[in-house]
What does this fold into?
Amino acid sequence: MKLVAGNSSRALADAIAAYLNLPLTKCVVRRFADMEVFVEIQENVRGEDIFVIQSTSFPANDHLMELLIIMDALRRASARRITAVLPYFGYARQDRKPGPRTPISAKLVANLITEAGADRVMTLDLHAGQIQGFFDIPTDNLFAAPVMVRDIEENFDIKSSIVVSPDVGGVIRARGLAKRIDAPLAIVDKRREQPGESEVMNIIGNVEGRSCILVDDIVDSGGTLCNAADALLNMGATDVSAYITHGVLSGGAVARITSSSLKNLVITDSIQATEAVRVSNNIRVMSIAPLIGEAIGRTADEKSVSSLFD
Ligand code: R5P
It folds into this structure.
């Protein structure tokens, strides 16, 4: 078994390697002058079971190309089995046609990954579970929930807390977490009553006097979270924190969150934290490396991965 890392998730890959007590395979991933990607695997990988760790995070297209080209190099070097480990699967939000003459980019990316040589895929908190069906190869969708639950139990008084889904689409994820910590559930229902009118935020559930824990898969611009936090405080919540798996945090998101009414935002290291995240006073990163490391180890040993989440 060997681990190979692209440039997007180097720190996470180092942590996974440390968990598995296995050095990363020597591999150069660099650019030609015109920014084409060049890869050279500097060790023999013939007949090996290889796990390529690479989130397709910002810059998404460069990191996706790195992943594809690394797998092409491995396949041509006679690797026995290649697992694409995408702690963050970029393009997942484009999983259906939002209008006529638009692409389903998540499916295209799934095809590219398969065509480049992946025999298996491992990812974390897919935006929509059914994206697994875009692959015709085994696909493990891991859940950050057990790691979040441990952190929540250490930092919250569950009796006075409530789990909140920031939109109707995230209810299943939030309900799953609420069940694990035995807390009630509330839902933020965003609605535009008439075209051109501003969005109305309704809260389904009673949040008064409770610490709210928003749960979601992605924080990108931070708009969903910050608006939900304001709406919850208006409805009498004591304070609002959030647990989000993937800190995409584009543009001015970190500044928006830092100056928002959110008490705390906890994200995982599925996407490498920027300096702005590291110095932020209300964003904390918890590592998902042990979970992914364990899942990789079990896959290599042909053991159950789903039992990690029982
Ligand atoms: C949407 O369906 C996702 O689950 C997130 O709620 C969304 O991507 C967050 O985006 P933003 O932070 O830009 O509001």
In short: The mean pLDDT is 96.
